[in-house]
């Protein structure tokens, strides 16, 4: 089945070119009072998620970001600031800006520090949801650096043995530049839950059921109804207490350590009560040639890649992928063919356009 066909026969699919998606998001954000350069950063982050097939964190997030701006939860004009802590450590204060702004500033600062010292460590407080972590890993990869990108997030699952959501399903992301031959970087970006909560929101948006095992309802029962997970239920951690341990790790490193909110106090990206997100991030950027030469590093990455994808395959498996490779292939295809959205999603985006008096999103005619 091609990407321009929806899996749900009730839902028509529309294709949107990535540059049209970006222009649309920029126009919405600017109409809501965001500066043009800041709007570009946010749009690029969201569209990159759609390009990589991470639709849970793509432009369909824009109505919730706009709602948070309108209700005072996010300051559309805030300018994040940097303060040095030691020679290779800095602190970014997001001042309650849209999450992509302080997080990008943190990565760029960490790259500068890593360039001078081999490693750069940046803690971020007073931030908001930054979307898909991979776009920040990519920023470091494009500059040739290894990185760890941590964030905390709003309560979505209880500690192991509990029954009240407390920890975020906060993604753990890491990247290392590609070898010379493979051209495929290592890019792991994963929530500590079976799937990201955004995938449950996506199913709810599209009127679809979710597989058993993704989440529980408010009574702790397994459910296939995404609404029951979002409204009072919680997400399933990966590998039981190990998943909740990883979720807590993100809260320690990105929350407790950086001075941001933690232990259930982070405000969610769909909250419209006017409360700031108080999200925390931690960024570590490292030069790949700290222990072996740059050339040797690339050669070793090629060895790893070749051995991983060349591993003898289990029955029924066509191909083994490196972390991030499926998304890289999706991105290459979607740049050529466009990004598929279901009609309900296009309609929701266009309702924002009408409300703000900007042009509707441009879809590809006769895909
Ligand atoms: N900002 C936030 O608060 C927040 C919270 C949760 C999740 N997220 C985002 O949600 C997104 C989705 O998270 P997820 O956990 O559902 O991701 P996922 O399960 O789709 O993928 C996780 C990782 O596994 C790799 N992978 C997938 N299939 C593979 C295969 N067959 N072989 C080898 N590797 C494979 C992917 O490349 C990726 O690195 C992420 O981009 C994450 O940053 C953001």
From TrEMBL:
Origin superkingdom: Eukaryota
SUPFAM superfamilies with a match to the protein in the record: L-sulfolactate dehydrogenase-like
Keyword Oxidoreductase found: yes
InterPro entries: Mal/L-sulf/L-lact_DH-like_ah (IPR043144), Mal/L-sulf/L-lact_DH-like_NADP (IPR043143), Mal/L-sulfo/L-lacto_DH-like_sf (IPR036111), Malate/L-lactate_DH-like (IPR003767)
Pfam family, one: Ldh_2
Regions annotated as coiled coil: none
Keywords, sorted A to Z: Oxidoreductase
Record GO terms (molecular function): oxidoreductase activity
Record-stated family: Belongs to the LDH2/MDH2 oxidoreductase family.
Name of this chain's protein: Malate/L-lactate dehydrogenase
Naturally occurring in which organism (per UniProt): Chaetomium thermophilum (strain DSM 1495 / CBS 144.50 / IMI 039719)
């Amino acid at each position: 089945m091609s990407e321009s066909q929806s899996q749900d026969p009730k839902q028509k699919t529309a294709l949107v070119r990535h540059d049209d998606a970006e222009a649309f998001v920029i126009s919405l954000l600017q109409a809501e009072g965001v500066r043009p350069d800041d709007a570009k950063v946010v749009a690029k982050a969201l569209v990159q998620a759609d390009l990589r097939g991470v639709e849970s964190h793509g432009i369909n997030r824009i109505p919730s970001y706009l709602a948070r701006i309108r209700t005072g939860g996010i300051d559309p004009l805030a300018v994040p600031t940097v303060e040095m802590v030691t020679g290779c450590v800095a602190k970014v204060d997001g001042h309650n800006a849209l999450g992509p702004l302080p997080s990008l500033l943190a990565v760029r600062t960490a790259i500068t520090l890593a360039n001078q010292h081999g490693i750069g460590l940046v803690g971020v407080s007073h931030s908001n949801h930054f979307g898909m972590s991979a776009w920040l890993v990519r920023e470091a990869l494009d500059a040739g650096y290894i990185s760890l990108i941590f964030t905390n997030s709003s309560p979505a699952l209880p500690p192991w043995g509990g029954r009240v959501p407390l920890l975020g399903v906060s993604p753990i992301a890491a990247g290392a530049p590609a070898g010379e031959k493979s051209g495929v970087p290592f890019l792991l970006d994963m929530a500590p839950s079976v799937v990201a909560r955004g995938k449950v929101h996506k199913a709810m948006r599209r009127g679809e059921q979710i597989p058993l095992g993704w989440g529980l309802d408010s009574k702790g029962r397994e459910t296939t109804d995404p609404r029951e997970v979002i409204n009072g239920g919680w997400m399933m951690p990966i590998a039981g207490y190990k998943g909740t341990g990883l979720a807590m790790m993100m809260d320690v490193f990105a929350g407790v350590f950086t001075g941001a909110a933690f232990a259930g106090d982070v405000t969610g990206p769909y909250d419209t009560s006017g409360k700031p997100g108080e999200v925390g991030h931690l960024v570590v950027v490292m030069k790949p040639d700290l222990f072996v030469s740059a050339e040797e590093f690339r050669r070793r990455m090629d060895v790893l890649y070749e051995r991983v994808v060349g591993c003898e395959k289990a029955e029924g498996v066509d191909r083994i992928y490196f972390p991030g490779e499926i998304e890289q292939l999706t991105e290459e295809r979607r740049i050529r063919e466009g990004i598929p959205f279901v009609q309900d999603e296009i309609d929701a985006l266009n309702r924002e356009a009408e409300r703000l008096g900007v042009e509707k999103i441009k879809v590809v005619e006769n895909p």
